[in-house]
Design brief:
alpha+beta, single chain, globular, 123 residues
Length: 123
């Protein structure tokens, strides 16, 4: 049973990494500042760090690794909220919907305006 659960967790991690990469690429094409760094080890396990700039010195970071899944939202370099596990994935979904619904930057060579309105968990 535990081996099956471990395999499912690794599969979830791989799916999250692929989704984070796709989200970062989508946002970059729209002119928004977002990136996804992927880490792989020798055993084919992988993790990732997704970071997006929401404007007005407001950033989000989503981490996936063998040791867990976390979401961190910061403003002015200060941590506002940290979520883990299913809560972190739900928050990522909420932000992905908001970011993808925001109008694309008219000039793709510059990031979207810093006035992106995003309902934060904690102002």
């Amino acid at each position: 049973m535990f081996l099956r659960l471990a395999a499912q967790y690794r599969g979830l991690g791989r799916d999250l990494v692929l989704s984070l990469q796709a989200l970062a690429q989508c946002l970059q094409r729209r002119g928004q500042v977002a990136t996804c760094y992927v880490c792989r080890d020798d055993q084919l396990d992988q993790g990732a760090c997704f970071v997006a700039d929401l404007g007005d010195r407001h950033t989000v970071r989503f981490l996936v690794s063998d040791s867990g899944i976390s979401w961190v939202e910061c403003r002015d370099g200060r941590e506002l909220v940290k979520l883990e596990g299913a809560d972190a994935i739900q928050e990522l979904q909420r932000i992905a919907i908001v970011l993808q619904a925001a109008p694309a930057s008219p000039d793709r060579s510059t990031p979207s305006s810093p006035g992106l309105t995003l309902p934060a968990l904690h102002p």
